[in-house]
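lol so apparently i was supposed to do this last week
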Amino acid sequence: MAASIRIFPHRRAIVDAVTENLAIEVRGLRKAYGATVAVDGLDLAVPRGEVFALLGPNGAGKTTTVEILEGFRRPDGGEVRVLGTNPRDATAEWRSRVGIVLQSTGEFEELTVAEVVHHFARYYPNAADPDKVIDRVGLTDKRDSRAERLSGGQKRRLDVALGIIGQPELLFLDEPTTGFDPEARREFWELIRGLAAAGTTILLTTHYLDEAEALADRVGVIAKGRMVALSTPAELGDRRNAMATVHWQGPNGPESERTHTPTATVAALAERFGGEVPALTVSRPTLEDVYLTMIGKEEAA
Ligand code: ATP
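anyway here it is w/ adenosine-5'-triphosphate bound
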């Protein structure tokens, strides 16, 4: 008994330290809409400063999960803490520390970009300079355009500007680059990398596997309301150790070989060709390949 009294405060301190280091903690989360179970016992822990991507097919439960974390939906069961608080008990102070970019907002159509961003800045105790935020999302040329005149991609940039104007500690991005052209996506990725480098925790949902790979420290795959895989993008589905495919141009056309030892294959080819191997490439499954295999298995189960 005496020993446990001595140990207890120490263990408690460790538990508190781990918990304080987490921006998001979810245990056993459940949510059903009538007979449809959207979230089915989900666990998730996102440390502060991490960029975490939530992947999963349509209807897997991503938006429901994120909306519970944002305090917009009540779970049926489980424990949720976001920045140390249950979102159900959210205060204005907590809200000011959380940034949210929803799938589409589309309000304030009559106002200009500058008016909307300046207007939102007033809601936050620690708002960023609105003109700098407009510049950061690449809308300086459009600052005097009415929101209703913006293209789809430009509207998303405005949504992102409103999500970051309060300089949030934690930013939720729900499919942020849908409708962006390739250049706008790259620019957006740079913006996210800048926010992450400044210490912002980011939870992102996306259907773009290259986006998850480009941005996320870790990815979680949700299927049928459960987390079915959780790892770094490079390690998802044991991708790093998956078989490689060596392609080259043979005397009669393209040839390839699947192998666990691509270096040995390439060495043998180099010897056979007496030097440079024509059109040589070595590839491993992409994140998309392993993701689709994983989802296919879950849906068949
Ligand atoms: P997507 O990639 O298509 O956005 P998602 O992973 O975000 O999908 P959710 O929107 O969380 O999935 O939906 C999970 C399940 O819950 C789906 O079967 C969906 O039809 C159902 N659902 C979601 N919202 C509601 C609602 N308000 N009422 C009834 N059912 C809902």
